[in-house]
């Protein structure tokens, strides 16, 4: 196609696929290709329950940005829930408790979730170690359903997929006008050695009786998140730990902590343990454009969109929309440069 711009997205996690999908859908005359060494189900985005709550984002991302990206994502997920497409996307609505060992300020995201309120005295009596907390309704997704759905939507629009390991941006510069860097923890060694893995281990159990979520909002020591076909018990936040093997001692610790909230969980059927590496970044989310001068006459634009910690699901759509806007700006810059 004459004038068609070639765009590649490195990374096939929830950030990469959301970015690729929105660009392919919103930007005219582009061909988007997702390039990744790994795809679903071998991704950090594939294992856990997607849970909208921007509390697992390390670093210094401004609250105003978190609020903007989070609101956009919440609106997208809520619209998707009430659509026919949700028969395959796996979005669900769930209510529950964020429990606190001590009072803290009302979070900025309280205006986004539904029905946010303080926990009532008759509710807090069920949690002796947590004298206060909040009750609210939010949105979730099962990674085993949502990730394939995102890929399907992208490919329906003509998006392409290539499986390979990218070692440098330069190796892609000859073939693509714009590169979107959505590599998550893979940004370490590719573009950003300040990235650190934040290892998370969780347990999937079969326990139909749990219909609400429960989170330790004070320290993040544990959480209980019901999904479509299972309940997720977590978890750990082990910084600078690259270990992908599950740990029996950690398994026992998670089960013990969660069973103190719902004692009958100790008898739940164990479906399996899972480990993933969240993309930690001390300076927060990186969402900006970098220019790569390949030759005196060739400039490739790199749109960075990574460093979301454990909030990739929560911020995905808002960040993807901003990344798409940056891609449009890059294309406009290329058009202006071509006229000179």
Question: What are the main properties of this structure?
Answer:
6-stranded mixed beta sheet, 10-stranded mixed beta sheet, 340 residues, 29% helix, alpha/beta, elongated, 16 strands
Question: Your description of this structure?
Answer:
The chain is elongated, with a radius of gyration of 21 Å. The longest helix has 28 residues. It has eight helices and 16 strands. It is α/β, with parallel strands linked by helices and 340 residues long.
Instruction: Outline the biggest β-sheet.
Output: 10 strands, mixed
Overall geometric form: elongated
How many distinct beta strands? Answer: 16
Q: With helices defined by DSSP (H or I, 4 residues minimum), what is the helix count? A: 8
Can you give the mean pLDDT? 93
Give the uncertain stretches in residue-range form: none
How far apart are the first and last residues' alpha carbons, in Å? 23 Å
What portion of residues belong to β-strands? 25-35%
Radius of gyration: 21 Å
- What sequence of helices (H) and strands (E) makes up the elements? EHEEHHEEHEHEHEEEEEEHEEEH
Helix content: 25-40%
Structural class: alpha/beta
Task: Offer a concise description of the structure.
By secondary structure, this protein is of the alpha/beta class. Helices cover 29% and strands 31% of the residues.
How is this fold's topology laid out?
Layout: E1 5-10, H1 14-26, E2 30-36, E3 49-51, H2 63-81, H3 86-89, E4 91-100, E5 114-118, H4 121-124, E6 132-142, H5 143-156, E7 160-163, H6 170-173, E8 178-181, E9 196-206, E10 213-216, E11 223-226, E12 231-234, E13 238-239, H7 248-259, E14 269-280, E15 286-295, E16 298-306, H8 312-339
Parallel strand pairs: 1-2, 1-8, 2-7, 4-10, 8-16
Antiparallel strand pairs: 3-6, 4-6, 5-6, 9-12, 9-13, 9-14, 10-11, 11-12, 15-16
Helix pairs in contact: 1-5, 1-8, 2-8
């Amino acid at each position: 196609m004459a004038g068609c711009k070639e765009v590649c997205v490195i990374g096939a996690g929830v950030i990469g696929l959301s970015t690729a999908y929105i660009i392919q859908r919103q930007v005219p005359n582009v061909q988007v290709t997702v390039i990744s060494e790994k795809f679903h189900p071998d991704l950090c985005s594939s294992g856990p329950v997607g849970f909208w709550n921007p509390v697992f984002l390390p670093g210094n991302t401004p609250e105003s940005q978190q609020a903007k990206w989070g609101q956009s994502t919440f609106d997208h997920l809520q619209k998707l829930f009430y659509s026919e497409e949700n028969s395959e996307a796996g979005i669900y609505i769930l209510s529950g408790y964020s429990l606190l060992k001590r009072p803290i300020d009302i979070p900025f995201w309280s205006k986004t979730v539904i029905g946010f309120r303080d926990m009532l005295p008759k509710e807090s009596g069920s949690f002796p170690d947590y004298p206060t907390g909040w009750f609210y309704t939010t949105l979730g997704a099962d990674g085993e359903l949502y990730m394939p759905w995102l890929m399907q939507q992208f490919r329906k629009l003509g998006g392409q997929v290539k499986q390979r390991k990218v070692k440098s941006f330069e190796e892609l510069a000859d073939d693509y006008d714009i590169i979107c860097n959505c590599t998550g923890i893979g940004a370490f060694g590719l573009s950003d050695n300040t990235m650190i893995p934040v290892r998370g281990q969780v347990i999937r159990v079969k326990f139909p009786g749990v219909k609400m979520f429960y989170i330790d909002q004070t320290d993040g020591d544990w959480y209980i998140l019901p999904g479509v076909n299972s309940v997720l018990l977590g978890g750990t936040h082990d910084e600078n730990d690259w270990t992908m093997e599950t740990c029996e001692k950690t398994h026992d610790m998670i089960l013990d902590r969660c069973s103190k909230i719902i004692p009958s969980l100790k008898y739940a059927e164990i479906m399996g343990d899972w480990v993933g590496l969240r993309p930690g970044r001390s300076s927060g989310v990186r969402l900006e454009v970098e220019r790569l001068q390949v030759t005196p006459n060739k400039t490739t634009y790199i749109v960075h969109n990574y460093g979301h910690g454990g909030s990739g699901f929560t911020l995905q759509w808002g960040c993807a929309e901003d990344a798409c806007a940056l891609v449009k700006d890059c294309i406009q810059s290329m058009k202006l440069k071509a006229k000179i």
